[in-house]
Amino acid sequence: MKPELQAYALGDRLQAGHRATVHHAVRTTDGRAILLKVLEPEHSRPQDLERLRKEYEVGRALAGLAVVEPLALSTFEGRPALEFEDFPGAPLEKLVGAPMPVGDFLRLAVRLAGVVADIHERGVIHKEIKPGNILFAPGSGELKVWNFSIAARSTRAQPPPRATRIIEGSLPYMSPEQTGWMNRSVDSRSDLYALGVTFYELLTGRLPFDARDPLEWVHCHVARTPPAPSALVPVLPGVLSDLVLKLLAKLAEERYQTARGLQHDLERCLSDWQARGTLVPFALGTHDVSDRFELPHKFYGREAELTELLRAFERAVERGTPELVLVSGYSGIGKSSLVRELHRPIVQERGFFIFGKFDQYRRDVPYSTFAQAFAELIEQILTESEASVAAWRELLRQALGASAQLIIDIIPHVELILGPQPAPPPLPPLEAQNRFHWVFRQFISVFARKEHPLALFLDDLQWLDSGSLKLLEDLVLHPQTRYLLLLGAYRDNEVGPSHPLALTLDNIRKSGALVHEIVLVPLTVEHLGQFIADALHCPPGSAAPLARLVHEKTAGNPFFAIQFLTTLHEEGLLEFDRGAARWRWDVAKIHAKGFTDNVVDLMVRKLKRLPPATQEVLKLAACVGNTTNLHTLAVISNQSGEQAARELSDAVWEGLVLQQGDVYTFLHDRVQQGAYALIEDERKKGVHLRIGRLLLASLDARSIEERIFDVVSQLNHGRALITDPAERDALARLDFLAGRKAKASIAYASARSFLAVAADLLPEDAWESRYDFAFPLFTERAECEYLGGAFEQAEALFDLLLARARTDFDKSTVYELRLKLCHVAGRYDEAVAMGLKALQFFGLDIPEDAAVLSEATRAEAEAVKVNLGGRRIADLADAAEATDPRVRAIIGLLSNVAPAAYIGSRPQIFPLIILKLVNHSLRFGHTYESCVGYSCYGFMLVSLYDDPRAAYEFSEMSIRLNQKLGDISRRGTVLHLHGDHINFWSHPISTDFPILERGFLACLDAGDLVFANFIAFEIVWQAIERGDAIDDVIRFSRSYAAFARDSRNEPVYQTIRLEQQFLACLKGQTRGNTSFEDDAFQEAPCLAKIAEAAFGCGIVFFHMMKLITAYLAGDDAKALHHADEAKRTLSAAMAMPMEATFYYFHALLLARIHPRRAEAEQREIARTLEGYNKKLAFWAQSCPENFLTKHALVSAEIARITGDELQAERRYEEAIRAARANGFVHWEGMANELAAAFYRERRFVTVTAAYLRDARDCYARWGAEAKVSQLEQRHAHLHEAPPLGPAAVFAARPEQFDLLSVVKASQTISGEMVREQLLRTLLRVVLEQGGARRALLVLSREGEFEVAAESAVDEEGAPGLLFSPAAQALAARVPASILQYAQRTREHVLLADAAADAERFSGDPYFAQARPRSVLCLPVRRQAEVVAFLYLENDLVPGSFTPERLLALELLAAQAAISLENALFLEREHAGRVEAETAGRRALLLGEATALISSTLDYVGVFEALTRLCARSFADWAIIDLNEGGTVVRLAGAHRDPRKEPLLRELAERYPARIGTATPVTSVLQCGAILHLPDLSDEQIRSYTLDEHHAALIHQIGTRSVLIVPLVARDTPLGALTFAAASPHWFGTADVELAVELGRRAALAIDNARLLAETQRALRLREEFLTVASHELRTPVTSLRLSVEGLLRAASAGRTVSAELLNRSLSRVLSRADRLEQLTGEILDVARIAQGRLELKRGEVELGALVRRVVERLEPELTAARCRVSFTCAAPVVGQWDAALLAQVVTHVLHNALKFGPGKPIEVFVGGEAGSARLVVRDHGIGIAPEQQGRIFERFERGVSKNYGGMGLGLYISRRIAESHGGSIQVQSVPGVGSTFTITLPCVWQPALTASLG
Fold first, then answer.
1. For a pLDDT cut of 90, what percent of the chain falls above it?
2. Which PROSITE patterns match (predicted)?
3. Going by C-beta distance under 8 Å and a sequence separation of 6 or more, which residues neighbour residue 1218?
4. CA angle 579, 582, 585 (to 5 degrees)
5. Rounded to 5 degrees, what are φ and ψ at 1806?
6. 250, β-bridge pairs
7. What are the phi and psi torsion angles at 1312 (to 5°)?
8. Could you read off the pLDDT of 1410-1430 as tens digits, one per residue?
9. Which of 2, 478, 657, 1585 has the least CB density, counted as fewest CB within 10 Å?
10. pTM of the entire predicted model
11. 106 neighbors 114 (Cβ within 8 angstroms)
């Protein structure tokens, strides 16, 4: 770059851009006028400098054309600059506005087309043609093109269709292919499109499209058609309008092909215009024949295949289900090009199309193709606005959660959006794989959505790695995948039946996924002929001979045909005849040339024609892969990036390599193979080794880990050549690192490969010399071999590890690993054996003998109490963690062996294992695994030790400990144990559901599909236990069944199917009252699958459900059989709700058969019933809500069979009441049925009938239709009569008809229990029975009316809408006067014809507006109180409501009142249940918030997370504002909807809260009180906002409910915490209390953080002061010591000291002593001030005289500093002051002036006014920075650096002295100019103002 030897005189600015500015300038060295383009340092990037160089180089290559010629690269004021020749024109954009006259336009357009043609013929594509880049001189008509900063060189060969990777250019002028959203490469025709936009703008005065954001611009160019210019400017000639539209064609093939052809047509237009003044239509483009060899990008012979692809995409968009489309065929057949054709239609749907290519040389790099594909997508996102990126960031955070690092590990670009993420916790292999697949699906779901579907194209599937194959299979088969089209291409000749891809595709097809295959065949001669004819612009007949020749050589392979034609052109056998304007070829000459028919040989031949240096770089690139970047190429070729780019330019020019920015891609696999074939076989290993070494040397430690796969894949290829032991050892460690990273990404095959290489590189004595490396290496390898299915190799490695392990600890590690792997494989007994062996190494034995085992279990249980040591269970969560590795290993082993023992054949050892785990945790500290141990111990306390209270405490503590440890891997497990084994024993079963739902989601987060599936079948059973309606449970179960099926957990899926069929049986939809079978389900195969998996839970569930159905059906024999089977397997349901249900049903069954049994058996039954009832009694005492019904009913049955009738009566009633109170409708039905049987035996007929009716009603409400039918068959009086047929004759009197209608209506109304449905039904019945056309129910509440529901006959049904109780809304719907009258009189109001005579109500405006005819208002009474009104009207006929009908309507109203009260009661009960669940969620929220707040004192980051938590769980959005010294600062904010986050930011930036304004936040900040706005009206919003936009923002973010709590700490208001919701009345009383508590804890956190900051600052100041003080004190002491030592040396030497020297030395001693006295005095003054002991000795002082004395005393120092003092005092100023202290103030201020302004004058002014004195000291020194001026009067603070000395006390002391006098000191200063200090003092002493200094 040319150095800046000359300066420039800048003139006018010609153009200003964001990154560069262009000025007219004059070079001062030679006076030449130039244009100077200068980069702006604030905005320019490194690539802008590169573009400047490129602009210079391209411009020099275009010398002689009408372009603004670049002169030199230079600098201006240190900024890169580029000189251009001066040109007198201005940018053409200044002429854009009104439509340009046609003649002027044509003259300009002809010249411009000619210039563009010249540029293209020099091989340059401008890429940014627009009016701003065209300089035009109107006077001369001359124009020039410039700004070639993003120009590109066109290639000789035509590149294949490919979307651009980097979108560059001006959006309004960008061609469709330039947007990167089309499967088209950019060529010279892109400039013609931009020229079309420019012409359009000049002719019409506007752009062809109007858009608001980049995405919309792209959509316009790709998908929208502009209006014709002639439609906007009617006077424009049609041919000129058509010419512009031709330039704007979406497809480049449909535009002009050359600028010369365009120029020809424009010249003809200009000629016509000049000759005739008009344009005659003519055929456009007749002379538009290109002399460049350009092959068309159209498809030939692929129309059907393309249509099939398009249909697949449409299906994916419409249905949302994923689909896999496979395109197969030989290499070069056109698979990739065909699939890429989808790019454009996907863009039109605003979808994403991404592409990744598997590489045959990089198959050991896991998921590299997915990384490649998504990297492009992430790069697209990074080009969007900050608001858009923030929205994506939030979507990714929500989708990925704590597992984001898993995605970053394989797609590092994601970190650019999310930032650094914590490493997820390690999981066992199966859970790790589940988690990875789940996280990847979550990641894809961010991009694959209905609003923007995703097409993912994976090319060359024949080379895919096993990890990618599994991921592909998961994406296709998993139902969570939505709006995703997976496209794959592979070479079918390289994929045989045993290829992993073929096997996986078979599995996918068998699973029923949508898979479509498209097989591409070679092109026919006819298709090739059409292709060649279009390429050479000749008729197909002329091209036929050449087409036959090409087909003969290439067999119709498109890629080969293109390369063959390109070779013919390059070798001059296919050339353009300019004279004839056509292409010519000679078939005979081509035959004679002897071209090969092997495409790789052809590629090698082409490559060998390149320069040797280019060939070398291409060889290296081929070793790296299909695609690489310039930096990597520079490293591996050991040269600079510029040199590597130059050497590649020939390959790019030939079209063999495609360049997109710094990324280079081989044109085709065959080109890469050809380049690789250039390397001799014997040299290939050495080349790879050299590449690997260079790559490794170029990377730092972090980069090595990021690019580990790239490095080791190269080094491994050449490892045979490595002989140095150190290098072999280093490579082994790199392979070990790569293997572990691949394993973490679930790519086990790749991991095995890397680890095997690492093991191979070890020396023979590795187990002796490198044991610490060999042992973990072989351990990892053994695990990966096992997980990869190589079981024999894994077992051999395990044996090797056990033989080589040096310590018992290492041996136990091997056994534990084998245990885990056996558990994954379902080999539970083998897993237990491995675990027990490992425990033996630590001295732990699990007895085999049952008696010894029982005793050991008892002893361990006793030890738990001892080891608790008096601690509260809750306090265990705060106990220390275990630190001893042996203890941690033991706890880990116990936790791993426990589930295998429980599930397998040794459940008897499970309690002992858990007890040992608990005792080790209690004695030595806990680990992550202790949480599961505590929870398991909890359910043992329930099931084995009958202590549900302690069980609940242990479980709650376990959950808290798990959260404290941050262990997500086991969170789902402990929540599962809590919700399904512990909580319901002491809390209502309804509270289990939030726990289990949280547990299910936690399992998904951790990839723990095993426990997620456990929860799935258990939560369905709990819904049955809770008494939910059967239809509701069936619907509820479907999602969990789908989850079990999709996660391939067959036993759990079959168990849920059993539950569904059990419910179907109860509904009577199976083949019998005790059968679960129907046409779609068979019991035997289902049970076989459960038994095959040894799934004990499924077995016991089956027998329990059979027991229940048999009992309800009355089949006692079958019930007894299943009861015995259930009892035998009941341990599998330990501590589940089913355990209690078993005892309940078995007891009822035994009680029923008791009378029919022999006496001995009756006694046995009685003993069993007594034991069962004791259990039920204990549980009922622990949790009456869940178990009182069961205990009471069993007690009633026992009383029945023992003859205690009174006790039986009481217990039956108790059971019924308890069941009804707790919502157990099924148990209520059973209790009623058994009570009926009891009373039937006693012949109480009426009572029996009543109980039977209630039983039938309960079963009906439950939905057990089979049971209802059974009761109706057995008891005829329960059977309802069939309805009367429609054809039957009906006869009745009117009153009978009225009575019939009332009965029917009452039955209908009384059957509704849900309030909304009741209101809808009531109004429908009233309309039907009352003869009204409109009906309203108006509630009366404390004298106020509220419309509860409204319906009309002209609407479909009764919507039951709620309306506002406001007076205006009410008055518009009903006459208020009638309601008020009816309320006061409690009588009905009947108007026969309100339109004619409204009687006393005629003044009500409602009648004039609505004009009703018949009106009736009927009070609805309940227990003599009017609770509502039925208002009926008919607007068509008078007299609709007769007095005779009133009785019927009043009866109807009475029934409505009863039903309404019942509905309200149910609402309250439901609300109570919901409130209990909500309370649990609030507690969880408070716990999570507290954990967040207490996690760190960096409250800024914490409160960002806190607002997100609140926005997710508590409100729609939340913000935190702080009051920082009177300024409101927004600390954090978050919205539930990430898309509205930008609105929150805009609200904070445009309308910040300010103290003193009337806004809710500021009012809370000022008054410190809670503000709750439950229903924010539009008027309120307008009153709080500044303008309409402000109000619109409030509406858009969703603001109807607002709750603001103050943040107060130590009685000091700190800020406000705001919650808002889009729904009114969102926050209840409990929510307000929760918000207050959140605010209190948040305030405490802020206060603690600030106290810490203040403390740290004080400590820093103290340290700083001590450092400065020691320095300041040492300085005079050192000077004093030197003076005295000099005198002493003279005295000891006997030298006579001259009087002058002695005087000088003693003066210096005295001066230093004075300085010491001053410093110590300042320190003492500060101490006195701090203690409030600074005493004032007031007296009459004349301020002017005092100042003079101080100036005189300082005269020596002022003289030494060369400071002249000018003093002004017009008159004496006298006051009551302390003269000594004031002198100290003046001294400090003057010292400051001379210290910071040596050699500068000092001005002092003394004056007085209005009882005050003013002392002003002005210096002309260095001044004080504005940010320092507020602090210089504080202790230890200084206005400048430490170089000026001083302790920072003088001005502090001066301020405190001035304040002690009731005055002040202030400063005004300008840096570099000086400072002015002003001291103001009252002349008269005012004790009230100066009472205290401290």
1. 25
2. HIS_KIN, PROTEIN_KINASE_DOM
3. 1184, 1188, 1189, 1192, 1224
4. 110
5. -125, 130
6. none
7. -95, 125
8. 888 888 998 887 766 788 888
9. 2
10. 0.48
11. no
